[in-house]
Design goal:
Layout: H1 2-14, E1 28-40, E2 47-59, H2 63-85, H3 93-105, E3 115-125, H4 128-164, H5 169-179, H6 187-196, H7 199-207, H8 225-231, H9 236-252, H10 256-265
Antiparallel strand pairs: 1-2, 2-3
Length: 269
Amino acid sequence: MLRELFMSLIHTLFGPPPGKGRPNHHDVVEERLAFTARLPTSSQGLWFDASFDLVVVWYRAAGSEHARDRAVLQGALIREAARRSTDFALGDHGRAQAEVSCALTEGGGFGVRTIHDLGVGVALTAHEEDLALERQRQLVWHRAEVAREEHRVRMRRVQELREEVLHDPLVARVWWFEQHQERWNEIAVAGAALDLLSPCQVSGSDTGHAWPGGTTSAEEPEEDPVLDAFLSGLEGHEKAAVLQRLTDILEAFERRDLAQRLREQWPQS
């Protein structure tokens, strides 16, 4: 106890013993600095708001040199923080703050020789409006991705139908019957509609290929031969009813162009 009191008295009167590397209090000055800056994020056009709080112990220097060193330190801190923050999205400001704080704490004096000791605190925040915009961007992006994938699935299905079903009239009718067995009496009407969707019919109307019956697209028949053969044995009122149901089927398949063709070719329907 007496030894500790004696050593405390010696340190108070004469300072710490040599070799400890601690400067005389007359050679250093402590200063507290605070400033703000905007730091980039990985979210395009959006920024973190950063608040820096420093406690700096400087070796004494001339006024101009001290001002220059303070500006150099501030610039170095902002550059290092920006280099770290750009890896994080705006909504991830908590992790960004932890990463930036670790980097600045381990940075020593950042090349400024007049710094004896440095303590750095930094807080990153984001405006609520910017966070809402970031959430909206992510939501729109995910919705667009889902829509694109749904479109790709639909188009793959269309390709499968063209290659595996619609290429052959009999296969197309069997395919339709397999899905609507309780509507077996509508096979003829559905088959006529499927014939209009077949690749042969489409290519004939678009490229001038031959239509069934020997005509070309340049001299398109007034009525489809398949429908004409099917409807030839029906009475007028029956024919109109069947054509109406056929038009409804085409519209259900979202082929309003073919439904309009039916109306133009058989106005009595």
